[in-house]
Amino acid sequence: MTSTEASATGRAPAGRNWLLLFLEARTFVALILVLGYFSFAAPNFLSAANAVLVSKHVAINAFLAIGMTFVIIAGGIDLSVGSVVGLTGMIAGWLILYGVDPGLGWSIQFNTYEIVLIVCLFGIFVGWINGMLITRLRVAPFIATLGILYVARGAALLLSGGRTFPNLNGSAEYGSASFPAIGAGNFLGIPIMIWMLVVVALGASYLAGRTPLGRHIYATGGNERGAALSGVNVNRVKMFVYMFSGLMAALVGLIIASQLKASHPATGEFFELNAIAAAVLGGTSMSGGRGRIGGTIVGAFVIGILSDGLVMMGVSSFWQMVIKGLVIIAAVVIDQAQSRLQARVALAQEASGAGR
Amino acid sequence: MTDAHPVGLRIRGATKVYPGTRALEGVDFDIRMGAVNVLVGENGAGKSTLMKVIAGVETLTEGEITIDDRPVVFHSKEDAVARGIGIVFQELNLFPDLSVAENIFIGNEPTRWGIDIDRNEVIARTRKLLRRLEQDFDPRTPLGFLRIGQQQIVEIAKALGENARILILDEPTSALSASEVEVLFRIIGELKAQGVGIVYISHRLEELIRVGDYITVLRDGRVTGTRSMEGVDIPWIVRAMIGDKSKDFSKSTGHAFGEEIFRAEDICLAKMGGGLAVDHVSLSVRAGEILGLYGLMGAGRSEFLECIMARHPQSTGKFWMEGRALRERDVAGRIARGIALVPEDRKNDGLILGMAIRENLTLSSLWQSTRLFHLSLRNEAARAAEFIKRLTIKVASAENPVSSLSGGNQQKVVIGKALMTGPRVLLLDEPSRGIDIGAKAEIYRTMRDLAAQGIAIIFVTSDLEEVMALSDRIAVMADGRVTGEFGPDVPASRVIAAATPAKTRDQAA
């Protein structure tokens, strides 16, 4: 896959705009290539059951990658999402098993909706802390979210003393028996978590393209000073993207706890790196100001299908890591080639346009 | 006098062509050793191009440079350094976290056997250089701890450390306090005595007359006057700088002004390292009036405009807009009250270079295309197209990145962005900087049109000719204070006198 694309970049300028089109759609091309290859090489890859399974794997990463995409477009980075997944999962588990004990000899129990709401609010709260560190205390995003990565992971371990919360079946008495449905239930034959992803992805896409807030996110990452002088409330934009990223992490924490009917404090390790990889693969620029939600979703699918397909083919997990790494690097190399080409085409257009 | 100061470097027939403009046109320039050679001219006159040529940063299209009567060609800055030419740019190129000694020898470190840096040697040589410059700070001090004036001296030491025989100082006093200027002048005197040829570029005319031995005036890439400093006075310099021929300024439409629309009272802004960048500035402007805000670099003009846009929360004073106090504390709030700013630095402050032309144009006024939270892309594109037409911005497609446009068209995009907010007061910071003559004329015409529509304009400029020709009223700033307000027919010399900071004025008297 990588070699075909690499040779395409080297092609002569004859069909330049076709080449540009091809490069712009590269993540899609990659997706089709991986899909085609595995349906041919891996038995049962194309079965409906497998499609659902792969989608579920992809969805976990896609939620985080959507949040990450906004953060990166706004010129930041959020390393804390993996740990927040672990911590919010633990909180969900705690609420189901013990409820909240105000220390009066009785405890408050919650139903499923209340648990989802509380956990989501908590994820947003962690994002709020990230945002405050970055906008008020001027900590570099990398450092601030790295710190929160450790804090959140430590907190998750402290909650249970490092043990797993098992048997999160909920109880009908408290109205939390439906908790396992979040990650395992179906609606119209499609898993609920996939519906959630569709809603979130469409919402995020709309936000990015069709609201002033979306435009402000791009402007903030493109040139913070310029955006501020144009009346963009840069701090508010940053607060939003980190809080949104926290919300995404909370959703993933809920889904995983529900799927496994257990929450383990080490859940979500390295998830942040997968999310960054999906965003970058989908054409998000690490320097900010450029990226698309649609691209990120496709990027998440490429990564997910690649790893699941390789598993099904029996490729060792060591080789999987090597291949994943190479794909990410190739994506960025091609991305660079594309933006250079794009700038050249635009310049040529303007040069001929000015002559008119 | 000529015999006392032999010519060290001679430039004959220097011509430098950039795409679209001729920055230098047949310039002859001599650098005399053991003397201060003053170079003066307005922004865009070609001073910096000439200096870059001498420093080896740029090469000439035509013409030759001779040192000691032998022709030389500089292919790079290293070539020029090897020939003993050192330059201290206005913007200091230093590393605040390294020590003074490390800064002076950066890229040029004496080593032991080519392996490690000989620290003792670095320190010892730095001490010697600093002693030569009468400075007594420790070579191991981190540079960031020094005042700007001392940092400038470190830059000079750096040039001397490379055995410079010719030293180019570009606006060396713009950031210095009065006492630091004195130190600098004493150092210049000593360097002269040591036979160093100094090229001194400045806008501060009194200062030039005081320190210079020879003067060369540039205008629009040509030399309009060159002589020994004896008998030179400010009117002579101004005549040579401005000339009689006028650029293409649109004439005033002669409309009547409206009511006072904007007023600033006692605006103060503290400066880093003490003092005030904006010092009790009070100004007002009427609807349809163009107020020119003239001054030298560092006079506090841009900072004042930024205060108006609420970019400095720590500033004090009061603004009034249409009779009501301006209390909004963020940029968006000020924009909503009808104020818009076109910043000086187009690339860093004015534009989001990676975004499309359309997106840049509408960035400040997205709310006009928004219902609740839904942004109507069709309405946005229509508004962008309308302003592209109104301001005659030459674009092939509004969807191309703004970085693909020429400087003049980029500037029009920034102005368009400001206008799309529907301002009643428009602030323009150096609106004509870095764009070609044709685009300048269009910007001037646009400003006139806007004023005729009743918009109040405050524009900042360092171009004397521009401020004289375009303004209905001129306010001059120096050292953060308003030092004069004039009508449109004031003689240029009075404007210049008001723009000269008090410290040099006192010394010249």
CATH architecture of the largest domain in chain B: 3-Layer(aba) Sandwich
What's the helix count of chain B?
Answer: 18
Number of strands of chain A: 2
C-alpha geometry of chain A: globular
SS class of chain A: mainly alpha
SS summary, helix count of chain A: 15
CATH H-level homologous superfamily name of chain A? ABC transporter involved in vitamin B12 uptake, BtuC
CATH class of the largest domain in chain B: Alpha Beta
**CATH superfamily label of the largest domain in chain B:** P-loop containing nucleotide triphosphate hydrolases
Rounded to an integer, what's the Rg of chain A over CA atoms? 22 Å
Structure description:
The complex is a heterodimer of chains A (356) and B (509). Chain A contains 15 helices and two strands. With 356 residues, chain A is mainly alpha-helical. Chain A has a single domain, classed as ABC transporter involved in vitamin B12 uptake, BtuC (Orthogonal Bundle). The longest helix of chain A has 39 residues, at 317-355. Chain A has a two-stranded antiparallel sheet. Chain A is globular and about 80 Å long. Chain A has helices spanning 2-9, 16-24, 26-41, 48-73, 81-97, 112-135, 141-160, 181-184, 192-210, 212-222, 224-229, 234-260, 271-281, 293-312, 317-355, and strands spanning 186-187, 190-191. Chain B is α/β, with parallel strands linked by helices and 509 residues long. Chain B folds into two domains: 7-242, Rossmann fold, CATH 3.40.50.300; 260-350 and 423-508, Rossmann fold, CATH 3.40.50.300. Chain B is 33% helix and 27% strand. Chain B contains 18 helices and 24 strands. In chain B, the strands form six sheets. A six-stranded mixed beta sheet of chain B has the order 6-9-10-3-11-12, with helices on both faces. In chain B, helix 6 links the parallel strand 9 and strand 10. Chain B is globular and about 70 Å long. The A-B interface holds A 209-216, 218-219, 222-223, 225-233, 289-290, 343, 346-347, 349-350, 352-354 and B 309, 311, 330-332, 334-335, 341, 343, 348-355, 359, 363-364, 366-367, 370, 373-375, 377, 394-397, 400-401, 403-406, 409, 417, 421.
